[in-house]
Design goal:
By secondary structure, the protein is α/β, with parallel strands linked by helices. The chain has one domain: Vaccinia Virus protein VP39 (Rossmann fold, 3-Layer(aba) Sandwich), CATH 3.40.50.150. It is 37% helix and 21% strand. It is built from 7 helices and 7 strands; from the N terminus they run αβαβαββαβααβαβ. It has a 7-stranded mixed beta sheet. α3 links the parallel β2 and β3. α1 packs across α6. The protein is globular, with a radius of gyration of 17 Å. The chain starts with 8 loop residues before the first helix and ends in a 5-residue tail after the last strand. The mean pLDDT is 90.
């Protein structure tokens, strides 16, 4: 990856406004339990799947259980882990799904844009991109990790996808708790959360699509 700044900030601002027209506030973003439930809801068996920033390749085990006819490839810069690709430019093939879980917050915006450009390149028309990142409205989940570099608000993450050429399919806040915990947060603490601008959902996930005619 190079250090050329590929972010046009006026374009980012305009794209961010487009996302805000759909999700005016963080509270307008619907809730789902986990990234796995979102992936399973939108994905399908028989797919070629690429994971970016794969780490221990834990997603591969889930995929083999859900979709035994799918194939899995991985990319990560950590050469101490077993991956299919260690350099962005070496990634080959065409994929129906690309997953990037808890990665974009670890890099500068221009590097994140370069990674999304690669995702767009290797996805087939109609292919799906799944990205999770800490919800900045739940500050501890971002601030507790010293390796985090860039906080991504839901509207800026969506804007980055639009700038890359993707169509935004869906955005979710991820929150899983016991029935009592959910009831407490949604009924009792919800007005307090809104007044303070602090959410109880720790992550957001974005589902984007490469246009069919791309």
């Amino acid at each position: 990856m190079n250090d050329i700044n590929t972010i046009n900030w006026s374009e980012l601002y305009a794209a961010r406004r487009r996302i805000q027209q759909r999700y005016r506030k963080i509270w307008n973003v619907p809730i789902d339990k986990r990234y796995a439930s979102v992936l399973f809801k939108h994905g399908f068996d028989g797919s070629n799947i690429l994971e970016m920033g794969a780490g221990s390749r834990g997603l591969q085990r889930r995929i083999s259980d859900w979709w035994p006819s799918s194939s899995y490839k991985s990319y990560d810069i950590d050469t101490n882990t077993k991956q299919d690709y260690y350099k962005l430019e070496d990634i080959e093939g065409q994929y129906e799904m690309v997953c990037m879980f808890e990665v974009v917050e670890h890099v500068r915006p221009e590097v994140a844009k370069e990674m999304l450009d690669k995702c767009f390149e290797v996805l087939v028309p109609g292919g799906l991109l799944f990205i999770t990142t800490p919800n900045i409205y739940y500050p501890p989940n971002y601030l507790r990790d010293a390796t985090h570099i860039t906080p991504w608000c839901y509207d800026e993450l969506g804007a980055l996808a639009l700038m890359t050429g993707f169509e935004l399919q869906k955005m979710y806040r991820l929150y899983s708790d016991s029935f009592l915990g959910k009831l407490t947060h949604r009924m009792l603490f919800y007005p307090i959360h809104r007044a303070m601008g602090i959410d109880f959902a720790k992550q957001i996930i974005m589902v984007s699509k490469k246009p069919e005619n791309a």
